[in-house]
Specification:
The complex is a heterodimer of chains A (334) and B (91). Chain A has 334 residues and is α/β, with parallel strands linked by helices. Chain A is 55% helix and 9% strand. Chain B has helices at residues 25-29, 55-59, 74-81, and strands at 14-15, 35-38, 41-44, 65-66. The chains are: A alpha/beta (334), B alpha+beta (91).
Amino acid sequence: MDGFLPTAAGRIPRVRTSPTAWDRLGTCRARLGLDRNNYTVNPGLYAIGQPGPETPVVVTANYKLTFDTVRFALAGRDIWLLVTDTRGINIWCAGGKGSFSAAGISEQVRKTGLERIVSHRRLILPQLGANGVRARDLRKACGFEAVFGPVRAEDLPRYLDRGEDEAMRSVTFSLKERAEVIPVELVLGWKIIVASFLVAAVLSLLGPDFSVQAVWQRWTLAASATGLGLAAGAVFFPLLLPALRTRLFSLGGAGLGLALAVLLPAIFPEQSGVQLLGAGLWTVVMSSWLGLNFTGSTPYTSPSGVEKEMRKAIPLQAAGTLLAAILFVIGNFT
Amino acid sequence: MKTFRHLENVATLAYDKDKCVGCGLCATVCPHRIFAVQNGKAEVLDREACMECGACALNCPTDAITVTPGVGCAEYIIQTWLPEKFRTWCC
């Protein structure tokens, strides 16, 4: 926050356009999925620089990661920023699920008294919100015309200066964008990790040899198999996605899992072949599942496509999990 | 985005050219650049790139475009397979 701006509809808070240490910490926490579901700013109107009645109005979500991205992209400019209540969800998901809508935007327009603050009747909406906002409904609801700005906030300055171009209208999935979702996938995957460690602990206890050393060795093998599956499916898969030779996420994940699973015999040379096969199969299945689940992080898979692949892949993954557990337990007896 | 493709012939996108009035909103909103207005009518340039977000259909003034919109995320789809009481919606 950087002071207030007096207007016809009261004082409007002015926001900073460079990140503080606190903002950076918040971004890291959100990227790690720590308080991602409650990382919000208050909806309403904010000023960037010294906006006046003629200044354009940019509309955004009240997810703070989104809010920060937009305000930092607009550094050095005079802009009104209308933050709508998307319940702390990004524009794309909020549009898909109904909280970024013509009704929600017009509600903020009314609450803030925007028609008394600006003389024009135009709102610049993020293009990725178009799945939730019918432009003509917005005009009917509040009298403001909706124009769709760029997909990415970083293209806003270019859009404001020179209007639209093809490059700013297309989604991308660059190495950086794929890498940014790795931490949150790992953190949100903690349930699957803890569950597999517990199951591995129980399965390790079955068998004729109850010595602490034998049980510990089996458990370490199972835990390593889980760790490799996680590395393959949640780290290597996003990074190598465009290089995979298949369009099937589950198959690509399985392939990367196999590539890492072959390390297991080298790390645990004293374990039986059957046991290693069980552990390796688990690495493959886990990576396959994580690969399939990564569809949710991409900007190009359709629900019809994902569902079709899931109907084929999930029965195989379930069978693979069962077989992996059986082989692992048989391995305890050999 | 031509390097990123999932399954073919699955998208529910349908377009009725007779109803099109050539407003070009579909071409504006599509994040995969599937539509372009040529000679006063929208043309489908790249149907296989569709991820069924629904932005084009929602903004089409004459319902020339229809698509069953949804979220292409495995966890979400599993939820839709479960009976109501077991659902815990993600994002």
